Amino acid sequence: xxxKVTKTAVKNSFNTILSxxxxxxxxxxxxxxxxxxxxxxxxxGCDYYNIDGVCLSTxxxxxxxxxDYKLMRKFEAxxxxxxxxxxxDYKIREKKVNKLLTEFINKAKNEN
Length: 112
Fold this sequence. Notes:
Blueprint: E1 3-4, H1 7-13, E2 17-21, E3 36-40, E4 43-51, E5 54-59, E6 65-66, H2 69-83, H3 90-111
Parallel strand pairs: 1-3, 2-5, 2-6
Antiparallel strand pairs: 3-4, 4-5
Helix pairs in contact: 2-3
């Protein structure tokens, strides 16, 4: 279950925060659960995922360093292909997508 957190609290808790738009990496985060979310006067703003000490902020109003859109699309397409391969066992799909997510984070961090 995710908890409501302030953006300030998230900023103070992570050295690296990657900002990702709404639904841009849904397949990459398919097997992960957000730890929290932020909202504002317009309602829900973003979800937060802690992946190996890096915060992914995803939503309409994310915080952090912007990630190259082409990089997101490339990794998201790979994750979607794996997620939809029902010839693979669920646990294998989960493991492959989570490995891809870690690879994506490492590349995104190095670009910023």
